[in-house]
Amino acid sequence: MIRIFPSLRFASLLSAAKPFYSSSPARAPPQYASFSEAKSTPASHSPSSNLKTPLFLRTPSHTTPLSEVWKWHDWAKDLASSVENSSINSEDSLDSIILLRELKWLIEDSIVDDPLVILHRKQNEDDGEKNVKLRASLEELYNLWRQRIEKRRPFQYVVGCEHWRDLVLCVEEGVLIPRPETELIVDMVEELVTKDEWFKKGFWADLGTGSGAIAIGVAKVLGSHGRVIATDLSPVAIAVAGHNVQRYGLQGMIELREGSWFEPLKDFEGKLVGLVSNPPYIPSYDIPGLQAEVGRHEPKLALDGGIDGTDSLFHLCHGASRMLKRGGFFVFETNGEKQSKMIVDYMMTNDLKDCFCDLKIVADFAGINRFVTGFRR
Ligand SMILES: C[S@@+](CC[C@H](N)C(=O)[O-])C[C@H]1O[C@@H](n2cnc3c(N)ncnc32)[C@H](O)[C@@H]1O
């Protein structure tokens, strides 16, 4: 299955269109990951059994006549097409073309048979009496599509997953939906470790791991020697990340720790070879103006970076100076442009001025100066 898009368009956490590919690792129960080698505290909570199962991983236990599914599909298409007229002149309107694409993906995630039996109704007109197997009841599919359109619930929360790099990550309310531009952090790490093996063998940290996207991406590019400690203040994020880590069988490589930024990493002071983070960086003032899907549904903790959006970033700069080994690498995602420059300026002044070298600002897919990278002196 190839999904081209992101369905979310919003100002600060920018989404540039690019292709991404699905893979479907075996289903596994949610569980925390913990290094056996590291003398470190594993996450302090037990795994959450309340995590939702994404649609594509559910058992197809609903048998429904095709004619009823067609009826739902006609209704869903009509609802998607009607939105544009109802929200004309609004800057934050839904786009019916994107919605129709999402509807196709919803069908792909829900049906066991070929989705074309639903999508190409005319060619299958005589099959209306046949039954199809679904992963959700028709009643739930009606509800999910209503939530998507009427409540502006993000599509990724509706289906319970996001396709990111070569991963399919489970997501749900309480955890940020990973964005396409953040994939570049993993690309940068991959480039670095391909050139210099030193970075493959040491400890990395992903701070504010959310769904675990960066930590999983980094662990995969580090290969069998890789070790990543992923932290988050949000227990929901830690539970979701744990589930994703488990699904990709990376429990031996990624350890999750709940707590604020560097607080759960005291035993790694001066020991990290790499530090990556996509912290909250949206200025508080901009939060009310976010696209409805983001502002109403995604966790504030993941978005709000304080007055000018730099609260967490400045904190990370100081932490990087303490936590990284000499020669250690860091990459931070920012709100872009002015904010990236502020971070570089901050790292070149005051008590941080002799701590880093090779500071760079790197653009994202859309050409926005999005990332700050550098090395510990
Ligand atoms: C922008 S999200 C990034 C999530 C994920 N890394 C990604 O790129 O999709 C920021 C993350 O930082 C976490 N966070 C916010 N404040 C934190 C803190 N004080 N300590 C640790 N994590 C924090 C949030 O819960 C959220 O998961």
TrEMBL record:
Keywords: Methyltransferase, S-adenosyl-L-methionine, Transferase. It holds the Pfam family MTS. PANTHER family: PTHR47441, RELEASE FACTOR GLUTAMINE METHYLTRANSFERASE. One of its GO terms (molecular function) is S-adenosylmethionine-dependent methyltransferase activity. Residues 32-55 are annotated as: Disordered. It comes from Cardamine amara subsp. amara. Residues 195-281 form the Methyltransferase small domain. GO terms for biological process: methylation. This is Methyltransferase small domain-containing protein. Gene3D superfamilies: Vaccinia Virus protein VP39 (3.40.50.150). Residues 33-52 have a biased composition (Polar residues).
